[in-house]
Amino acid sequence: MKDVHHTAIAAKFNLRNPVHFIALGFGSGLLKPAPGTWGTLAGVPIYIGLSSFSLITYLIVTAFAFLIGIWFCDITCRDAGVHDHGAIVWDEIVGLLITMAFVPFAWSNLVLGFLLFRLFDILKPWPIRVLDRQVGGGFGVMVDDVLAGVFAGTILFLVPFWR
Question: What is this structure's pTM?
Answer without folding.
Answer: 0.91
